[in-house]
């Protein structure tokens, strides 16, 4: 009787340990997704942290009222520190977003200018650096480019680079107060709407 109980406990504990150590294939693996880039030459890496937070995300939507395709991407080092160490893209386009197409906010050879384009980078202090489309009245922004190499139900993958600016508008005038060069940007984020 005692041996049977020991064998039963041994079998149960072995089964429990094996069950706990097996991975759930339905959850994305941390190393599968990332946001990586350089700011003025300094490397920034936002690895996916699904065990504690969903800090990388992407969405592809259709706005039926305005008949626009919308692409949203976000990468954060830590979602519990909002608007710090974060990258955000929001693009709107009349045509569907396509793999291999290069999108930008400023007209340039080989790039498609999106209908609406907003890029934001927030540094470790929460200072924002932005890029958007220029208006006919004022050319405030420099170019930020993005290219999607993969758009599917599992995620959105691509590369980006450009110059983002910070303006102080508190006096009623736009005064340039900062500038960052974003280089070697690459991302692979899970889709949040699939």
List the helices and strands and how they pair.
Elements: H1 2-21, E1 34-39, E2 42-47, E3 56-63, E4 68-76, E5 86-93, E6 102-104, E7 112-113, E8 116-122, E9 128-132, E10 144-151, E11 155-168, E12 175-190
Parallel strand pairs: 6-7
Antiparallel strand pairs: 1-2, 1-12, 3-4, 4-5, 5-8, 6-10, 8-9, 10-11, 11-12
Q: What does this 3D model show about the protein?
A:
- Residues 1-19 form the signal peptide.
- This is Lipoprotein.
- Keywords: Signal.
- The longest helix is centred in the N-terminal third of the chain and has 20 residues, at 2-21.
- With 194 residues, the protein is mainly β.
- Strand 11 and strand 12 form a beta hairpin.
- The strands form two sheets. Strands 2-1-12-11-10-6-7 form a seven-stranded mixed β-sheet, with no helix packed on it.
- It has one domain.
- It has one helix at residues 2-21; strands at 34-39, 42-47, 56-63, 68-76, 86-93, 102-104, 112-113, 116-122, 128-132, 144-151, 155-168, 175-190.
- Helix content is 10%, strand content 47%.
Number of strands: 12
Helix content: 10-25%
N/C terminus separation: 54 Å
Major sheet: size, sense and barrel closure?
7 strands, mixed
Concise description?
This protein has 194 residues and is mostly beta strands. It contains one helix and twelve strands; from the N terminus they run αββββββββββββ.
Q: Which structural traits does this protein have?
A:
194 residues; five-stranded antiparallel β-sheet; 1 helix; globular; Lipoprotein; signal
């Amino acid at each position: 009787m005692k041996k049977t109980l020991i064998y039963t406990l041994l079998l149960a504990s072995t089964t429990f340990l094996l069950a706990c150590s097996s991975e759930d294939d339905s959850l994305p693996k941390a190393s599968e997704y990332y946001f990586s880039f350089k700011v003025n030459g300094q490397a920034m890496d936002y690895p996916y942290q699904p065990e504690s937070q969903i800090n990388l995300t992407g969405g592809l939507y259709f706005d039926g009222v305005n008949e626009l395709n919308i692409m949203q991407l976000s990468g954060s080092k830590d979602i519990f520190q909002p608007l710090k160490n974060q990258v955000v893209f929001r693009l709107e386009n009349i045509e569907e977003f396509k793999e291999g197409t290069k999108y930008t906010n400023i007209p340039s050879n080989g790039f498609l200018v999106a209908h609406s384009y907003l890029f934001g980078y927030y540094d470790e202090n929460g200072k924002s650096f932005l890029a958007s489309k220029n208006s006919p009245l004022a050319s405030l922004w420099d170019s930020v480019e993005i290219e999607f190499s993969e758009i599917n139900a599992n995620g959105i993958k691509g590369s980006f680079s450009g110059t983002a600016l910070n303006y102080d508008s508190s006096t009623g005038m736009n005064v340039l107060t900062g500038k960052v060069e974003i280089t070697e940007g690459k991302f692979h984020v899970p889709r949040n709407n699939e």
